[in-house]
Amino acid sequence: MSSWPGRMKSEGFETVWIQLCTGSSVDIRVRYYRRSCDRRNGKRYKGAYAGLILLGIHDRCSPALASMVSSWSALLSSFEEVRQVLCDRGMTLDLKVIRKLTYRYAERARSEQQAGRIPLNDGDLLEGRRVVISTDGGRTRLREKKRSPKTKKDRTRFRGAWREPKLLIIYVVDAQEKQEKSFSPFIDGCFNGPDGVFHLLRGYLSSLHIQDSDKILFVADGAHWIWNRIPGLVKALGLDPKRVYELFDFYHAVEHLGTVAGLRKTWSSKERKRWVSKQRGRLLKGKAVEVVQAVQKLCRGRNSKAIKTERDYFVRNEKRLDFSTVKALSLPIGSGAIESSIRRVVNLRLKGVRSY
Description:
Layout: E1 9-19, E2 25-34, H1 50-54, H2 63-75, H3 79-88, H4 95-114, E3 130-137, E4 140-145, E5 158-163, E6 166-173, E7 186-190, H5 193-207, E8 215-220, H6 224-227, H7 230-237, E9 244-248, H8 250-262, H9 269-284, H10 288-297, H11 304-316, H12 323-328, H13 336-350
Parallel strand pairs: 3-8, 8-9
Antiparallel strand pairs: 1-2, 3-6, 4-5, 6-7
Helix pairs in contact: 2-4, 8-9, 8-11, 10-11
């Protein structure tokens, strides 16, 4: 308690009941500490049970119960569903209690992560493995309270500002390009922009001993904020550039080829499909230069400016279009993992209607 912010004094022993994951509870006698009242405005500060904190007990529930409630809250679509699941297991918790346990557990987990104390098992380390790293962003609205008079129904006004959450994923693949089941993927994100998500990524990779891995693949779409920061990340982690590969998502590349073909208004549907199929085959064979030349030939007519934009897109990412080399190393050529994460985390969870 001597290291606690502010001066704390003992208020003697109190009896505290602790909720267990079995549905029962136990009474514990523990010393209570708190700060003195602020005489100027009469504000009373909350105290702490030092003994419980040392045992890892927060919010008057066992660590196992807090972990269980937080896990179910992450998996299910609402706190009401979590309450029902716990009820079926013989534990009756109020919605407000479930919400409080979940949010505070998340705060402690994030604090541990920011302090560099990420708990890992031996199976989580990346030594000798093929590692795939990807990141992307989404869009969602957040309710932000407005400092203004309440509505006629006494409700707080809010604004729905657009925010762009950034997500990352780290996973391991085997010789057949499939995710290893022995390694649980790391999925995380933040609202702090590109620098924030790359700060998270650096912390995870450092803790996972990324420098001991066999091969490292960065795969993503063509966003500038991603590729402009990867060289700095590689340098900061001290990685061997010969074992690091950067790849533009194959399916995004094909999508841009379709955009180019769509700009040729004189072509029929079959001609567009034939042209896209031919360039797609060239990309798979590692002939990115020929693809750029084929797009360049189409830069004429009314839509030449739009086609040049697509051509520059391929020129800018030409060194990241070596799909044949990456394929030969038994590494994925698509960023479907992060696209799926964006759908599940942002589109279904953050945007979904949840009875919280």
